[in-house]
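Page 47, continued from p. 46.
Same chain as before, 192 aa.
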Amino acid sequence: MTKARILAEARTVFARRGYAEASLREIAEAVGIKTPSLYAHFPSKEALYEAVYAEVVAEHTAFFDELVRTSADLPPLPRLRHLLSGIGAFYRDRPEQHEFSMRAAVDENGPSGQSLREIFLDSESTLAEAVRQSYDDGVTTGAFAGGDPEGFTALVFVVMDGLFLQYAHYSPELYAERFEQTWRHLSALLSA
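Result:
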């Protein structure tokens, strides 16, 4: 039994049932141990959930950090598209992670809400800086109309959150169609 196995099984159970409905007994059974053995690694259900949440956020952050790295040399508009397309690319191969993240968005209002929000907000700084830099580069080169870089960064994050929700509600084909519509309008607004 390893801590990694506990985290993996807990992620599956939390993704399927959510924090409130998941039980330590169910997680322990999935690992093949008795419930008290979990306490050797995590002092509480809340601590286990927070560890799973931090692990999921770290994977998400690593993926987007790589997108930032691979898009750094692109012109501003294709760079932004590359970053926005990461939502579908990330969750396409990670349906369990999408389900966990959907439930976690609700659970942030639960018992560990503040610490979960802090984990999430700490994770987005590289992506926020990349979006801001894309905007600044677009304004500098004359590709984008000037304005408010902080407001633009907030807008892109709101669009990303919307894409995250769209991914949950629509078929891959309809999601792709909506992404293209959104991108077409956003790029036209930027270039105006």
